[in-house]
């Protein structure tokens, strides 16, 4: 990808203050409906799960109820897994993939797992197609104590209220061409820091936890997802988005240190998915299928490893 220069808000070398953040916020517009594209699908979810409103975002732009789904047959003896989508609201297949898993597949795993699904963690971001929340905060860098992001705080509190440790957390994401045309330039301007990574891998890949690697599970996911869509090849330096691969289609981050969603718990198994919906080799449906396959293959692996 070609590096983008400059941004329309702020001055080069000076981090944003409140005036710049308000200017950015005032330029955001609603482009799609959380109610129509997310909430309206809740009626399709199996009776095996109950909807729980775990919070509400109260912004000047409006109020957004936050919903998660929880297994009705909650059992202290079962391992608990969490699936999240829309931590970055603009990442459509993360939201729709979490919903599709919940509607079409989750009930098949209820006998073995307690299941939690938060399909759209950042609904304002979903509607305005944004990575940040209205306060120019990235929820996926804000999963830690005293988080400045309402979205992150609410999710962590809901999971904590279930009073069971997570065995696994699968966080569904995607990377689009707007990362380079909008979000990375905005980040560089907001923080007055030069962005050196402009690589967008063409295909599906995973981000694991360098402090808690799950290499075998990651390999199982990549193998299964490869039957649905293409896996992103490493670049000439053996890297994806500037990070060295640990195996085909996988890189690792220090997820807790970075405040990433998949690192906020002490889950034994965690991973973040990434698909590239702007690839000429995929369409929206293929991206959703890849997200669902990532979740089900992870659960199949954990079931065979931990429950057999």
From TrEMBL:
Tell me which domain of life the UniProt entry assigns to the organism this sequence originates from: Bacteria
User: Required cofactors, per record?
Assistant: Zn(2+)
InterPro entries for this protein: AstE_AspA_cat, Peptidase_M14
**GO molecular function (one):** hydrolase activity, acting on ester bonds
Catalytic site positions? 274 (proton donor/acceptor)
List the SUPFAM superfamilies.
Zn-dependent exopeptidases (SSF53187)
Q: Where is the Peptidase M14 domain positioned along the sequence?
A: 30-299
An annotated GO BP: proteolysis
Asked if the record carries the keyword RNA-binding, the reply is no
Q: Which PROSITE patterns match?
A: PEPTIDASE_M14
| Pfam families, per database record | AstE_AspA_cat
The UniProt keyword set, sorted, is:
Hydrolase, Metal-binding, Zinc
To which protein family does this belong? Answer: Belongs to the peptidase M14 family.
Q: What is the protein name given in its UniProt record?
A: DUF2817 domain-containing protein
What organism is recorded for this protein? Answer: Shewanella insulae
């Amino acid at each position: 990808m070609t590096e983008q220069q400059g941004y329309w808000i702020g001055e080069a070398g000076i981090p944003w203050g409140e005036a710049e953040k308000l200017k950015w916020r005032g330029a955001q517009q609603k482009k799609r409906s959380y109610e129509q594209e997310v909430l309206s699908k809740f009626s399709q979810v199996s009776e095996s799960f109950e909807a729980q409103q775990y919070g509400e975002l109260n912004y000047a732009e409006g109020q957004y109820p936050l919903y998660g789904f929880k297994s009705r047959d909650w059992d202290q003896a079962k391992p608990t897994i969490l699936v999240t989508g829309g931590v970055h609201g603009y990442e459509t297949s993360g939201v729709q993939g979490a919903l599709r898993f919940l509607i079409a597949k989750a009930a098949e795993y209820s006998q073995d797992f307690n299941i939690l699904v938060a399909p759209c963690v950042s609904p304002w971001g979903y509607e305005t197609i944004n990575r940040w929340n209205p306060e120019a905060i990235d929820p996926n860098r804000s999963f830690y104590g005293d988080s400045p992001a309402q979205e992150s705080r609410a999710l962590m509190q809901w999971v904590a209220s279930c009073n069971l440790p997570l065995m696994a957390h699968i966080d569904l994401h995607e990377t689009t061409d707007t990362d380079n045309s909008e979000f990375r330039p905005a980040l560089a301007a907001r923080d007055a820091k030069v962005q050196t990574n402009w690589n967008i891998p063409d295909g599906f890949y995973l981000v694991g936890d360098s402090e808690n690697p799950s290499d075998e599970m990651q390999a199982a996911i990549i193998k299964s997802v490869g039957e649905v869509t293409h896996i992103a090849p490493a670049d000439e330096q053996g890297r994806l988005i500037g990070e060295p691969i640990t195996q085909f289609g996988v890189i690792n981050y220090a997820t807790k240190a970075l405040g990433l969603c998949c690192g906020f718990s002490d889950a034994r198994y965690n991973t973040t998915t990434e698909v590239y919906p702007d690839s000429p080799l995929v369409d929206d449906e293929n991206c959703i299928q890849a997200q669902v396959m990532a979740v089900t293959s992870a659960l199949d692996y954990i079931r065979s490893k931990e429950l057999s």
